[in-house]
Amino acid sequence: MKTSQIFRASACAFAALCLFPACQTTPTSGTSDASQEFDRADANHDGKLSLDEVNDHLVLRIFKSRDANRDGSLTLAEWTTGDEPEQKRNFMKRDTNRDGVVALNEALVYGRKHGMASQVVPEADTDKDGFVSRKEAGAYYAAREVDPR
Question: Which of 11, 26, 131, 138 is most solvent-facing, going by the fewest CB within 10 Å?
Answer without folding.
Answer: 26
